[in-house]
Every structure is written in C-alpha cells, then in structure tokens.
Amino acid sequence: MALRDYMASMDSRHPERTLDLLEPDFRFLIALPGKEVIGKSREDFAAYIAGRNPVDRAHEILRYSRDGDVETVYGVVTEGGRYCGSFLSAAVVSPGGLLARYQSFFTTSFELVDWSGQAASERSRT
C-alpha cells in the first residue's frame, strides 16, 4: 500500500526520501489546525518537508482501504510517544505505484476511531 510506505518514510530519519515515492507532478493538500499547505509538484513537497520541525513523530495507521487507484488511511500522530491528534488521508496512486495526488486532514480535537494507546496517552497528560 503506497500510503503505508509514504507514512513510514515521513516518520523515518530521512523524510526527504519520501520524494522517491511521488510523481513529478504530485499535487497535495495538507490541512492542519489553522492552516493549509498546498503544492503542485514534488519540489513543492520537498519545500514542505524542509520546513517541518524535526521531532520524534509517528503516524499510527488504525484503518486503511483501497478502491482501484485510491487509498485511504485513518490514524493518530504521536510525538515522542505522546498523542498529538488524528488524521484522515487519501491518495491517488499512479499506474507505476507512485503517489500522484494526496490530501490529508489533521485535527487535535476529534478522534473518529478509538486508539488503543488512548489510556496511556491520557495518563501521560496528567
């Protein structure tokens, strides 16, 4: 699944290698609380990666699906093992297996699916 590879690469020590998973004319929308990041090329995505804060971030995928050339994933993001929020992402995968289009919505205020780490996360907040 292309989105699983994408998430694993973004969480790695070398997120710039994610660019190898993208079509040259890759288009994307990443909706974060209070802002959107939009791009129309692999180069735009490289700029997005370069502007991210280097943290111990992980995307834990709780649900995934594929229908033809569209993949979707839902999960939670942790930083340093602490819950930060949840995401719902979708991508169009090219015939060559690369991401052609991507959109992701991240929220810190709502969880669609309960996370098994929730109890641990709640304990760490208090």
Automatic annotation (TrEMBL):
InterPro entries hit by this protein: NTF2-like_dom_sf (IPR032710)
Name by which UniProt lists this protein: Nuclear transport factor 2 family protein
Protein source organism: Streptomyces vastus
